[in-house]
Structures are given as C-alpha cells and as structure tokens.
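User: I'm writing a short methods note and want a consistent example. For NAD(P)/FAD-dependent oxidoreductase, I'll paste the sequence; you return only the structure tokens, no commentary, since I'll be parsing the reply automatically.
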Amino acid sequence: MTDSQPKALVTETYSVYTSLRSAFMVTTPPPLSPQVVHPVYVIGGGPGGLAVAATLRARGVRAVVLEKSDAVGASWRGHYDRLRLHTTRRLSSLPGLRMPRSFGRWVARADVVRYLETYAEKHELEVVTGVEVFRVERADDRWVLHATGGRRLTGRAVVVATGFNHTPRLPDWPGRDTYTGELLHARAYRNPGPYAGKDVLVVGAGNTGAEIAADLADGGAGRVRLAVRTVPHIVRRSTLGWPSQRSGILVRRLPAALVDRVAALLARIGVPDLTPHGLPRPDTGLLTRARQGAVPVQDVGLIDAVRSGRVEVVAAVEALDGPDVLLADGTRITPDTVIAATGYRRALEPLVGHLGVLDDHGRPLARGARCPREAPGLYFTGFTNPISGMLRELSRDAEKIARRIARLRRAGRGA
Ligand SMILES: Cc1cc2nc3c(=O)[nH]c(=O)nc-3n(C[C@H](O)[C@H](O)[C@H](O)COP(=O)(O)OP(=O)(O)OC[C@H]3O[C@@H](n4cnc5c(N)ncnc54)[C@H](O)[C@@H]3O)c2cc1C
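Assistant:
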C-alpha cells in the first residue's frame, strides 16, 4: 500500500455490528474535507486511537487507524472474563458517543468491546486491520510508517496509540526457564475454570492481580495465595454511591502531602485493617504512589477474600527452583500454577526509540497536543496511568490532539 492508493485503504475500512445502533447516542460526523492525499495516521485501534480518529473526523480531518490485530479493541477482547470497568460508565465514554445506560454503572468487558465496535461504526472511522506499524521514520517534513506487507505510508501527522499495556512483563526470576510448574502471565488468564481444585500463586497486588486472586477464590481454586512485594493502597470502588474515580479527578492536582494525609484518614474509616492478614497499610501516601505510576487497587472482592482466608497473602517471589517457588521471607512453596500479574511494558522502542522521543523509562517525552521537540507532527496518547481514569484522559487527549492538528491544517502548517 502506498500513498498513491488511498482508495485501497478506504475499501479496507473496517465494518462493525449494526445491531446496537439504536442503543447509542451519537452525533453524525460531518462530511470530510477533500484532502485525501495525506490522512493522519493513527497507530492502534484501541480506545485511544479510535477517540483520536473520531475527534479528527468531527473536525473534517481524515484519519486512518492502523490496527495490527483483526478487530478494534484487541486489548479488551483479551482481558479476563470477569473484568468490569472500575471507572464509571459516564466518565469512561469516548468523545461523541455515550455508552448506553443499559450497560450499567460498571461496564462489563464484553460491553466495552461492543461499545468500541459501535464507536468505530457510528463515527464512520477508517480502520485498517491486520496492519502492524513496525517503525516510524522522519523523511524531510514527513513521517514514513513501515508496516505489514512492505507498506510505506507517508503523513505529516501521526498519532501513536499502541497502548500502555502493550507487552506482558514477566520477571526474569532465577530458575524461570527450568521451573516445572505451570507459569503464565495474567494476560493469558481468562477465568477460574481451568484452576478448579488447584493450588495457585498470583504474583503482584495491582488491580489485575487483586482481581484475579479474588476470581480464583470465588471460582473454586483449591488454594489461592497472593505474593506481594509492595503493599498496595486499597480503595472502595465507590462509597455511599460516590465513585473513587471522582475523588481521583478532584485531588489529582492538589499537593500530594495534603491528599496523602486525607486519603490515609479515609482509608482508616472505609477500609478494614488487613495487617493481621499480611497486608499492612502502606507507608507511602496514596497520591505520592499514584504520581510514581502505581494507581490504588479498587476493591472488587480482595478485602473479603483476604479477611476470610480465601486468599492468603505471602511474601514476594525471589526465584523458582524446579517445582518450588522461593519467597523473599525464605519460605519455599509448591503451587500448581503461578500467574504473574506483573504488569506490561509500553515497548515503544522498536517503533520510535531511534527518534529520541522517549525518556529513560521508555515513556514519550510529550503527550496529548504537545509533540516532542525534535518530532513535530508525532503525537502520543495513552502512555500514562492517571488516577482520574485512563479512558477519561484518552478522551481529553483526543480532543486536544484533534484541535491542534485541525488548527495547523487551517493555518496551512501540516497536511
Ligand atoms: C485489565 C485492565 C483494566 C482496565 N480498566 C480500566 C478502567 O476501568 N477504566 C479506565 O479508564 N481504564 C482502564 N484501563 C486502562 C486503559 O483504559 C485501557 O488499557 C485502554 O484499553 C487503553 O487504550 P489504548 O487505546 O491506549 O490501548 P489499547 O487498548 O491497548 O489499544 C492499543 C491498540 O494498538 C494496537 N497496536 C499495538 N501496537 C501496534 C502497532 N505497532 N501497529 C498497529 N497496531 C498496534 C493493539 O493491537 C491495540 O488494539 C484498564 C487496563 C487494563 C489492562
């Protein structure tokens, strides 16, 4: 595919379900302006990429979403069955299309997928599936995208929306390669069915590890242990109808010292002390932690499971040895299965690392409407983990990016 074949792209456009049409509220997108030669390329057909494409479309700017999998919302298709949004439906909708009330307040994973499909359709987005972008390069004042099948796509504006949770991170524990038990990353976990009666160790007490541990305990696993290195902040998803996400939005710009103190007080009132069960209250404040990238764990069953002994908290994993797992306190245990809920990498290096646009941690140097200094026209969205809810921030970033690109185009700076 080359620039001389823009129509080929259009014909590859993704088409999605129509059955939900009446359930959604949507504004009809305006007709596109006739600038078809250089669309804005959006890499990634998750919520972030779709939101950018829709907000560009709403401003009459043509955007083409390049998605490596065979459908939009690939990440959400792959998450575990029980997952629901821990951010509210209202604060998780993307620009220009509300999630229907019938989805309830805490939207189920399958409904998120249906929503994303409908979102692409309602906004008439051009989504080309099965196209992975491997590398972005600068050529004069243009960006060249190297993609599946030897494609070279050229544009003056490119939005990278390949996802914060891009590549599973599996710690390089000593003995990992010769471990004889079952070892998988949380990415591969779907439901407790295969673990009925089994002894399972979940590693990592972030939102994913906490929920998988509770899911296993509810779903008939024989024994569930949760290995914790850093004690998490645990918050109720909502208190007296007030969602914790709203608190996150209100406090996120306040001084951390103040918020940390108030949050500690509220935690003592609202969250039982789990110290006797191996989960003491953290000694670093909630907002301080969040600003370091560790958002609090929303309780969707962990507290009860830990208090009732259905999930046992154990020390961090240090090494694997044959069938055994060695813990930081010297204990040696022999679970049937280890599920590593140990996070993801953004893995942006192969794509844009050579452009000098990433910091030492592999994070983009700029986000939203701001481009890295050396890379005008290269935008990033979805590479932070905000306490206010990532879907909400993706929506806000999308509006900012689209506004800027549309303004530059009107001014004749950026095709
Ligand atoms: C378990 C879990 C629960 C979450 N729950 C919430 C929640 O309740 N509320 C909330 O606000 N946020 C939540 N998030 C965070 C965030 O909203 C989601 O991760 C969201 O999917 C991020 O959207 P994204 O578009 O940035 O990335 P993704 O959804 O990961 O989409 C990226 C897309 O890019 C594609 N892609 C990647 N690389 C390439 C490439 N080189 N070329 C082409 N395509 C590529 C991928 O196939 C994928 O479809 C959750 C995250 C996880 C992991």
